[in-house]
Amino acid sequence: MAILNITYDGMSVDYTRPIDERLTDADVRRIAVEVIRSGELRGLHVAGLTESAFTHYVVDRLRTAGGGMHIYLRPKVPFGGR
Amino acid sequence: MLIVFCGVGALGSTAVTLTRNLDATLRLVDFDRVESKNLASQAYVKQSVGKNKAQALKLQLANFYGVSAEAFAVRLTEHNTQELLGGGGLLVDCFDNAASRNLVSAFARQHQVPCVHAAIAADGTCGLVRWDDQFVADAEDEPGQATCEGGEHLPMIGLVASVLARTIQEFVRDGRRWNSFLTPSGVVRT
Fold first, then answer.
1. Long-range contacts, A59-63 (Cβ 8 Å, 24+)
2. What is the DSSP secondary-structure string of B171-184?
3. Domain that includes residue A69, residue range
4. Residue B169: what pLDDT?
5. Do the Cβ atoms of B92 and B5 come closer than 8 Å?
6. Which among A7, A58, A72 has CB closest to B125?
7. Is residue A61 part of a domain?
8. Secondary structure E strands in chain B
9. Does the predicted model carry a pTM greater than 0.80?
10. Do residues B103 and B132 make contact, with C-beta atoms less than 8 angstroms apart?
11. Residue A82 is assigned to a structural domain of this protein
12. What stretches of A1-82 show up as alpha helix (H) in DSSP?
């Protein structure tokens, strides 16, 4: 399992429920849209977020020191989230 | 130690000024010139407008702080990596395009030179400082896509540059290699 972190509009929030680390990038983007729309992410709630909000975002998968995985959904650098 | 800064725009020029106290030789590589618009987001002063960035920063370091540096006013290509990056004990990538970043990475991997990358999103929403083993350069969605040029996100530029400078400082001091992910709300070591 992995911890999903979503960075959007200057906010960066961890999703409290672990997700399957084998999810595809497309799945990660879809889940991000769903949890932001639903208000499950504390401090990051956009009810009208579009399906394509994360089309140009990057999915980073980093191993933690403890052997777990952290998945980061973030804007491209240096181009931003468009 | 020779520290080679590849790209001295917003992040690079600011990080260089924050590493001026290190017991190291600083080499600055950038082909670009200082424009008036850069004064809002980069560590250049009005008197540097029109000068090559690497040479202008070298002059500023000498005139303001008495620090000497090497300046190479050329574009990094596959033909001059040895000349520009060779001998470096640490490569610091602050370029703003994937092609140049990949050149630095390739040289670092081939010659087993420590290399750290720094990047910031054009909209100021995030930045990162990552060592080469964890770094993949983000590709453009289209050629010539805009990057962070104005001064709108200067505090975020300062934050990323200061984390980069601290990362360099810790590496020089004891070899530690921290990766960091940054947003306007904080810094997380990853």
1. A59/A25, A59/A28, A59/A29, A61/A2, A61/A21, A62/B134, A62/B179, A62/B190
2. HHHH-----EEEET
3. 2-75
4. 97
5. yes
6. A7
7. yes
8. 2-6, 25-29, 69-72, 90-93, 115-120, 127-131, 180-183, 186-189
9. yes
10. no
11. no
12. 25-38
Answer whether residue B149 shows pLDDT above 70.
no
- The 10s digit of each residue's pLDDT in B19-57 is 999 999 999 999 999 999 999 999 999 999 999 999 999
A61 in contact with B, Cβ within 8 Å: no
State the ipTM, two decimals.
Answer: 0.78
d(CA A42, CA A53) in angstroms, rounded, equals 18
Strand, coil or helix: A49: coil
Pairing of strands B90-93, B2-6: parallel
Which strand (E) or helix (H) includes residue A61?
strand A58-63
Q: Do A79 and B140 touch (CB under 8 A)?
A: yes
> Does A70 map to a domain?
yes
Strand-pairing partners, residue B26, are B3, B69
- Residues of chain A with Cβ-Cβ distance to B185 below 8 Å are 10-12
**A81 in a structural domain:** no
Over chain B, what is the mean pLDDT? 93
Residue of A6, A60, A77 best to disrupt the B interface, most CBs of B under 10 A:
A77
Rounded to whole angstroms, the maximal C-alpha distance in chain B is 42
Domain count, chain A: 1
